[in-house]
Amino acid sequence: MELALQPILAQLYTNAELRSRFFTNPEAVGAQLGLNTTQIQQLAQLSAPAVNLFATSLKRKRLGEVRELLPMTAKALDKEFSKLFWQYAETYIPQGIKKHLLDAIAFASYIEKVANIAPDWILDLVRYEKAWLEAAEPNKLLLVRRFRYAVNSSEGHLQQPFVALWFRLSQRGKLKCMQVRSLLF
């Protein structure tokens, strides 16, 4: 497969709607993607079931990585976590060297914006784990977030407002978190 087709192949592996359209009508979709006749023929020779299988395995791998980075959210949402991830995975493709971290942060943002999650403390839990991941960036020296529920405690998920501060003294310093109960909300 020629190098110029790699970005298109990546799109086919990560975008189910594009994949379906392409294998239904490779000439029209290939032309829309700016491919020439030879390139379209090369991609059309791929087995649609094999491409679908590989695409599914990529998403499963991503799901596993994100589940490890958002363990409390995964536990709280249980089966809903996977369901939401499959929906999300159609909308975002991570790029770069920290793609698992960025994927987890983007997924947490997706849950915050799109999902109708109950009970309310779960959204605070998502925000809390997302903040940990954001604070983990070495160039981030200070991050402050407010929460309505004590999602981080062994006391359960009480409606007990608090402020969390993640900080490090230098870019190579150890990340620390300090939590202060807040009566001001």
UniProtKB/TrEMBL annotation:
InterPro entries: SCO6045-like_C (IPR058711). It comes from the Bacteria. It holds the Pfam family SCO6045_C. Residues 51-111 form the SCO6045-like C-terminal domain. This is SCO6045-like C-terminal domain-containing protein. It comes from Aliterella atlantica CENA595.
